[in-house]
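Students often ask why inverse folding is considered easier than folding. One informal answer: many sequences map to the same fold, so there is more than one right answer. In these notes we will look at a single instance of the problem. The structure comes first.
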């Protein structure tokens, strides 16, 4: 087990015998401290699938950066509990491949909680939504997220801008239509199952009854139900910040405001049978975090590397180079409007009482050199307390007696996870009868296209075979 205490500062470099495999993409193994993450690589391994004990919560990091990189795609956290409920928190660029590699089926990715609507937290929704019904999510998608920002301003020409429909419902409405060509084209396949019952407001303790965004059938896999959360609610009026409370699985998810770029960003806290986790999303250090994080088991909090380091790594420029000053100032502005510097992360860690059992830095490009710098800054403020750095495929098992960190071993060649075929299905939207008696309905992927110019496998004039259709 890694303990990133101050004492481990002296052992930052890979020892000669240590294997640097882990999250380095094949062929990129390196002893360059900017090209390896020896902390992550030294974790004990986890091989999915692994059953979850009834009293355990498992947190899997599938995306841990804000820039897409092979070692760390953009943000996503997957949380499962032993009573059989599971949640996706954000799904940024590149994480669909990571979920796939972990063998997480689409049917378990139907409740998505957005902390805010930045693209590094939402981009892979397109894949999850578009291909869920082709896999085993033949039921609607539920998207939780903040309501409209309500923000209005005047641009340099004096024109009023806003208020816009920039909340989660408008996002889902437009997203649904953006995907119209895709969803129509894929509706030759089964997208719903008989007997589906839509959760009622009280089943999930929702802030409002479910309301879909389009003319999709209520039970269809392409139907989206947004659940808008009032980011003005802090939990000061008891219960006003509950996003989800399922009495059957005992999971309760609440939200509280974050400070990030634009009104409307939120953080989430999940409570289940005495265990808890917080996912900050993106935020500057803030008081709400200190009060909501009291006694939390796992705090997953964003952290940004120093502006000078960010500017150099991201622009390739060095201090003194032409353009460096602009790169630095931009990085500083992003930090100051939106993010938590390393020292502030340590300060937050030190101010939460009782402290988290484990604090996880995420949204942070974690490699040996950046981790070295971060540990120094964090430990200046928080000399004690368990600290770790998120990397994709970090798996954290949480129970009352232990918190176990491991790194998942996965195949870069994974297909979708297999799932048993359903016992019975509803007729696809695009269908035809397979038999003359009209008893066997089947989808027909060709009904939507013009086939007059198709080259047939057997030439109708000569009867000669043009090509084989069995794929070989
Ligand atoms: Zn972000
Ligand atoms: Zn953001």
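Output (designed amino acids):
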């Amino acid at each position: 087990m890694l303990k990133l205490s101050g004492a481990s500062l002296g052992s930052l470099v890979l020892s000669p015998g240590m294997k640097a495999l882990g999250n380095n993409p094949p062929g990129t193994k390196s002893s360059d401290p900017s090209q390896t993450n020896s902390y992550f690589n030294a974790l004990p391994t986890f091989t999915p699938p692994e059953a979850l004990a009834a009293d355990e919560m498992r947190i899997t990091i599938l995306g841990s950066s804000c820039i897409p990189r092979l070692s760390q795609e953009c943000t996503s956290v997957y949380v499962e509990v032993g009573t059989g409920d599971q949640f996706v928190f954000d799904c940024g660029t590149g994480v669909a491949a990571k979920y796939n590699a972990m063998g997480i089926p689409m049917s378990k990715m139907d409740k998505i909680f957005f902390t805010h609507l930045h693209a590094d937290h939402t981009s892979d929704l397109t894949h999850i939504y578009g291909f869920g019904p082709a896999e085993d999510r033949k039921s609607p998608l539920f998207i939780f997220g903040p309501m409209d920002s309500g923000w209005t301003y005047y641009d340099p020409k004096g024109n009023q801008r806003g208020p816009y429909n920039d909340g989660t419902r408008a996002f889902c409405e437009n997203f649904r239509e953006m995907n119209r060509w895709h969803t129509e084209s894929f509706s030759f396949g089964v997208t719903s199952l008989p007997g589906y019952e839509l959760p009622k407001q009280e089943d999930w303790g929702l802030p409002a009854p479910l309301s879909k965004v389009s003319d999709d059938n209520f039970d269809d896999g392409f139907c989206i139900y947004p659940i808008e959360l009032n980011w003005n609610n802090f939990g000061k009026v008891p219960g006003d910040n509950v996003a989800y409370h399922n009495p059957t699985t005992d999971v309760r998810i609440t939200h509280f405001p974050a400070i990030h770029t634009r009104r409307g960003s939120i953080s989430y806290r999940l409570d289940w049978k005495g265990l808890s986790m917080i996912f900050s999303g993106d935020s500057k250090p803030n008081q709400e975090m200190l009060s909501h994080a009291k006694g939390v088991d796992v705090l997953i909090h964003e952290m940004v590397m120093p502006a000078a380091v960010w500017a150099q790594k991201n622009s390739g420029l060095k201090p003194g180079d032409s353009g460096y000053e602009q790169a630095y100032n931009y990085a500083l502005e992003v930090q100051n409007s939106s993010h938590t510097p390393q020292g502030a992360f340590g300060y937050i860690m030190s101010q939460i009482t009782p402290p988290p059992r484990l604090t996880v830095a995420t949204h942070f490009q974690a490699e040996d050199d950046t981790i070295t710098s971060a540990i120094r800054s964090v430990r200046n403020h928080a000399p004690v307390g368990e600290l770790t750095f998120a990397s994709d495929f970090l798996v954290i098992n949480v129970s009352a007696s232990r918190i176990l960190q491991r790194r998942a071993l996965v195949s870069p060649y994974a297909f979708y996870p297999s799932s048993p075929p359903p016992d019975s299905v509803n007729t696809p939207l695009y269908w035809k009868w397979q038999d003359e008696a009209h008893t066997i309905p089947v989808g027909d992927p060709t009904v939507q296209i013009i086939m007059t110019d198709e080259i047939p496998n057997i030439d109708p004039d000569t009867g000669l075979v043009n090509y084989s259709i069995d794929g070989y």
